[in-house]
Design goal:
The complex is a heterodimer.
Chain A: H1 13-17, H2 23-43, H3 46-72, H4 80-97, H5 103-122, H6 131-150, E1 163-164, E2 169-170, E3 173-174, H7 178-200, H8 203-213, H9 215-220, H10 225-252, E4 254-255, H11 262-275, H12 280-307, H13 314-335, H14 340-353
Chain B: H1 2-20, E1 28-35, H2 42-63, E2 70-77, H3 82-93, E3 103-104, H4 108-121, E4 125-126, E5 144-145, H5 151-165, E6 174-180, H6 183-186, H7 189-199, E7 202-208, H8 216-225, E8 229-233, H9 237-249, E9 256-258, H10 265-268, E10 279-282, H11 291-302, H12 317-340, H13 348-356, E11 359-360, H14 362-368, E12 377-378, E13 389-395, E14 400-402, E15 407-408, H15 411-429
Parallel strand pairs in B: 1-2, 3-4, 4-5, 6-7, 6-8, 8-9, 9-10
Antiparallel strand pairs in B: 10-13, 11-12, 13-14, 13-15
The chains are: A mainly alpha, B alpha/beta.
Chain lengths: 358, 440
Amino acid sequence: MLYREAGQFKTTYAADQQIFPIRQDRLGILVLLVIAFLGVPLLASEYWFSAILIPFLIFALAALGLNILTGYAGQLSLGSAAFMAVGAYAAYNFQLRVEGIPILVSFICAGLTAAGVGILFGLPSLRIKGFYLAVATLAAQFFIVWCLTKFPWLSNNSSSGVISTQKLIIFGHELKTPVEKYLLVLSIVVFLALAAKNMVRSATGRAWMAVRDMDVAASVIGIRLMPTKLLAFAVSSFYCGVAGALYAFCYLGSVEPDGFSLDMSFKILFMIIIGGVGSIMGSFLGAAFILLLPIFLDIALPFLAGLFGLPFASETVSHIQILVFGALIMFFLIVEPHGLARLWQIAKEKLRLWPFPH
Amino acid sequence: MIKKFKPALAAAAVSLAMLSQVSVAAEEQFFPLIDYRVGPYGSNGQAFYGGFIDYLNYVNLKEKGVNGVQMTYEECETEYNNAKGVECYERLKGKAAKSAGPIHTMSTGISYALIDKSAQDKLPLAMMGYGRTDAVDGSVFPYAFPLVTTYQMQASAIIKFIKDKNAGNLAGKKIVYLYHDSAYGKEAIIAMEAEAALNKFTLVQIPVAHPGNEQGAQWLKIRQEKPDFVVFWGWGVMNQTALKSAQKVGFPRDKMIGSWWTGSEEDVVPAGEAAKGYMAATWNVSGKQVPVIADIETVVYGANKGNLQDKAKIGTVLYNRGVSAAVLSVEAIRKAQEKYGKGKAMNGEQVRWALENLNITDARLKALGATDLLPEIKTSCDNHEGSGKVKIQQWDGAKWVPVSGWIEGNKALIHPLFQASAKQYAKEKGITPRDCSKEK
């Protein structure tokens, strides 16, 4: 009843081609953006900004990057964390070595650097695919972390290899509070997410999906494989690189190469698997699930234990949390192998018929 | 759909309500414990934080708190993960607004991530025996305290120990520095290089990649190099592997000296016979012969309020280290109360002042029953380290035996390195250093 597109006629090409063809979707997104930009800053506490919302947005961006590569172009990658590391260290070095470079420009340069590295490690994809490609991207994961530890120039000769990021100054104003950092991250993520949404429904995106579904068929209908695959690697790494720069500058404030470990790459991969492979929205849902559920369990479990008078030691709580988390992942994968995004899609289809299903 | 999620929503609302409840009674001193008991280094964390919490309870039980102020704490599990550490810090920071003991994270990575935040929130960050070591220079880092001693001073003290063994001369000797290839392992290189230049010995650096359970190539290299000593900076599983590999290539273990993160029971027991004779630095002895440790066992575990489930850990190196960290923290609270009012809870700013003006003498340590748990400590604005002394202990196959007195590193050589590094940090971050001559 509420979610029905009957009566919404499209009279122009522009109306037919817009991102969200259904009016309710447009309104929904608009309301979501208003809440994110205006409502949240008014209501959320500092804890929410620095510990939950900022990392959620950053990881959603990284997952989005991986989703472009894996979900849309079909190239499995295990190097997302390494590309984030490239972004973080590149942004740091641009700030350090280029006099007076605006922070946003160095973020973009960081993304471009990561894109360059991504193309380099994407080259094997021209010859190998599937699990073999995953192993090749694993090389990126180890090589980049090794490289950042090996060459002290990259961390400005810091004795420990840890870099401490510079101040965030935009148009002469220093971003200090978590709210300001949140708004910066949110703006970048919204912009890049909309760009990705547009990209995947353009000719480029359709070429990616054709390659994903069957690369021989794609080349037969005239899609050149090399530029298509490498472009996917470049765009994906760009997103991961920007996410890495934000991770260093807006979230932790100091990073070390070992922080961008294989664990983190897996975490990002799980985000898209849980959220939905080949879905922009899935990246956000997956990031929320993987990132927020452990925190929620961490807070809820001791409370529940107290409620039922169970004497849990803090390490037991941590173990139970890992158990429950693992069980929930399996539950979701069994109930809905296509991820949370698919659940949302099913919900929308049901809503169309509600309250009078056939 | 909505029905399905209702319980989840309710639980979320409940947890939110819990979060917003941040009332701490006036006569309670709150310790935000950003700790770890699971994950790769979980067993180390259990011993350390077990000792820490036991001592807090001990103070509560034995003397009814510090001047009547009860010690309270809340734990948050980090699993030694930087991002989780930040989340924990943000979660506990609200509760720590009114009263806060020093934060001990037992992780270099988390400490790095918290250095700016804690200074902004005015919460003191203690880093006993880990980085960021240039925070020794308190003019740039007012809220960070690498207390007791640092990696660089430790490396220097180890070299001094070796030098004394060689009749005060190291010229022409060869020393291998075998290290965990991470921030932790690399911190001491700068000190080793400075010592090598000063004492004219040859330094060979050999890194081991994380986690270090395969060291065949490294020990082959050591055999080729034929060094006089191996200075060893390992972590976790790397330690026992190194001892076993040393045995395999026939390198004498009593020529191997490790850092304080390689010298606990967890490191040598799994290596078995291979560990015998191996030496490591420490700032606290092990064993229950320390009066306060024995007393904790009777008072706290007697009242059934002990934190450890595995009581065998009491008296181990890391347990005692946790107690030493708590002794230092509680002494800081005491010091702060002397200045800002006895019987009151102290906030982060007040505890910070106390940490900067600590003066724990041997007499005071004796009164606390903590002789040999800590060296004498006297901090100031330009010296947040306060001591720089370590002992060398040797594993005799069953327990750690101290084989030296307190050895102080070469301060004149090492501290200028800290100041230079702190200065660079201040420049990068646009911090104007405090004038230490004006601090009281």
